[in-house]
């Protein structure tokens, strides 16, 4: 919606605004004028123009009558069809103008003043940006993707105190465990468990499991599993397999991660290890520590 109080005024609609003439007398204090045509005049902002009486005996280089001295006045209004409404006098004196008076769009002093006044809402007179021109609160809003490039963020500009709760969370649980005589149904390291709160907004989690070596006396396949639960129940969301090819080959170790998009809210994770053949282990590094890490991205 175009308002007469808008600060930014166009001179044309993209093509040269053609001079025109009054088709009806303009009275004193008139709120609108009627013209023959307003070709090229802007309709999406107020317009600035000049009214004057033509001197048919004094032509310019293009053969157009020059203004009769003292007859000029400057105005602002809004174009609607062939009418200019909401007239405001911005220069000279209000007068009665007869049919045939010239109406010409041009940058006036009011056009320049309004432009500067609009800029000063956002900038200082020296051109620097006012602090109030950029909001410091984004409460309840989300910036579009790729609004801020990584290269635009200086080192140290984002601190822990500036992060929304749970925007970045790292939960680590460690546990040490040993068990001998492992069967193909036994599950060990069930103490590796943690819970985190996943915020909304399409976040991902990276779940990392680090397990130290175990001395094995049998050929076996080891499964390192991640469960989306506080205990080993149901099916794992991810499994990593390590196969020994030689009995008594010694150390079995694993370090791996799984990344996926979880449901927002409280989520629990646990890790487990099992062996699918024989009596897979004599000692599972009882004095070593295994880790389960959940990193919210």
Describe the structure.
This protein has 297 residues and is mostly beta strands. The protein folds into 2 domains: 20-120, no CATH class; 170-296, Sandwich (Jelly Rolls). The protein is built from 1 helix and 16 strands. Strand 4 and strand 5 form a beta hairpin. The longest helix has 12 residues, at 109-120. It starts with 19 loop residues before the first strand and ends with a strand. Residues 279-287 have low confidence and may be disordered.
Short description:
The chain contains one helix and 16 strands. It is mainly β and 297 residues long.
Q: In percent, how much strand structure appears in the residues?
A: 35-45%
Annotated CATH architecture of the largest domain? Sandwich
Gyration radius over CA:
39 Å
Within the largest sheet, what's the order of strands? 1-8-3-6-7-2
- Spans with pLDDT under 50 lasting ≥5 residues? 279-287
The span between the termini is 43 Å
- Structural class assignment: mainly beta
Domains (count): 2
Under the CATH scheme, which class of the largest domain? Mainly Beta
- Please count the helical segments: 1
User: Kindly state the mean pLDDT as a whole number?
Assistant: 80
Largest sheet: 6 strands, antiparallel
Task: Based on Cα principal axes, name the global outline.
Answer: rod-shaped
What percentage of residues falls in helices of 4 or more residues? Answer: under 10%
């Amino acid at each position: 919606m175009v308002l007469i109080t808008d600060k930014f005024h166009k001179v044309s609609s993209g093509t040269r605004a053609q001079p025109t003439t009054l088709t009806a007398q303009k009275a004193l204090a008139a709120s609108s004028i009627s013209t023959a045509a307003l070709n090229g005049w802007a309709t999406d902002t107020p317009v600035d123009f000049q009214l004057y009486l033509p001197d048919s005996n004094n032509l310019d280089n293009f053969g157009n009558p020059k203004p009769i001295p003292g007859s000029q006045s400057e105005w602002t209004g809004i174009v609607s069809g062939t009418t200019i409404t909401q007239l405001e006098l911005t220069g000279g004196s209000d007068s009665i103008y007869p049919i045939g008076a010239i109406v010409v769009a041009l940058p006036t002093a009011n056009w320049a003043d309004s432009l500067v006044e609009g800029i000063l809402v956002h900038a200082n007179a020296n051109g620097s940006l006012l602090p109030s021109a950029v909001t410091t609160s984004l409460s309840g809003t989300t910036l579009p993707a790729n609004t801020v490039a990584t290269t635009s963020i200086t080192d140290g500009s984002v601190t822990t105190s500036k992060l929304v709760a749970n925007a970045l969370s790292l939960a680590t649980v460690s546990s040490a465990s040993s068990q001998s005589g492992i069967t193909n149904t036994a599950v060990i390291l069930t103490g590796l468990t943690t819970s985190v709160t996943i915020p909304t907004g399409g976040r991902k989690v990276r779940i990392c499991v680090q397990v130290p070596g175990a001395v094995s006396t049998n050929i076996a396949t080891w499964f390192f599993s991640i469960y989306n639960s506080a205990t080993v129940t149901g099916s794992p969301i991810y499994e990593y397999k390590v196969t020994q090819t030689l009995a008594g080959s010694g150390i079995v170790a694993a370090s791996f991660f799984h990344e996926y998009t979880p449901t927002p809210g409280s989520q629990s994770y646990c890790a487990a290890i099992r062996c699918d053949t024989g009596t897979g282990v004599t000692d599972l590094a009882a004095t070593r520590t295994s880790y389960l890490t959940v990193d919210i991205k």
